Amino acid sequence: MATRDHTAGGDEITPARRTLTWRTIKYEEVYLRAYASVSEARAGIGRYIGFYNSRRPHSSLDGETPDQAYFNSPAPHAATA
Q1: What is the C-alpha separation between 49 and 30, in angstroms, rounded?
Q2: What is the DSSP string of 20-79?
Q3: pLDDT in tens, 17-62
Q4: Contact criterion met (CB below 8 Å) for 67 and 54
Q5: Which pTM was predicted?
Q6: In sequence order, which residues have a C-beta less than 8 Å from that of residue 68 and are 6 or more positions away?
Q7: Do 30 and 45 meet the contact criterion of CB atoms below 8 Å apart?
Q8: Short-list 48, 15, 17, CA closest to 30
Q9: Which residues contact 46 (CB under 8 A, 6 or more apart)?
């Protein structure tokens, strides 16, 4: 039986949304780096996901980060990866 993924706010994560998220990660992180190893790639992608959720504004969230939108976190000081 398939399980359904949901955001912290309870919204269902659709396949299209998941595809767009991974496309963003690939274009903004993976394709810009020359990782020397799998562990280096995992660390870099992990850092980017932290940035993506806590510091990168999202147009679909009216310019807020996911952390701001779903967890009422304060605004970040600077948008740097």
Answers
A1: 11
A2: HHHHHHHHHTGGG---SSHHHHHHHHHHHHHHHHHTS-BGGGTTB-HHHHHH-PPPPS--
A3: 889 889 999 999 999 999 999 999 999 999 999 999 999 999 989 9
A4: yes
A5: 0.69
A6: 61, 74, 75
A7: yes
A8: 48
A9: none
Please state, in angstroms and rounded to a whole number, the distance separating the CA atoms of residues 77 and 32.
Answer: 24
| Model confidence band, residue 1 (pLDDT cutoffs 50, 70, 90) | very low
* Residue 21 CB contacts under 8 Å (≥ 6 apart), including other chains: 52
Residue 45 burial by Cβ neighbours in a 10 Å radius (0-12, 13-18, 19+): middle
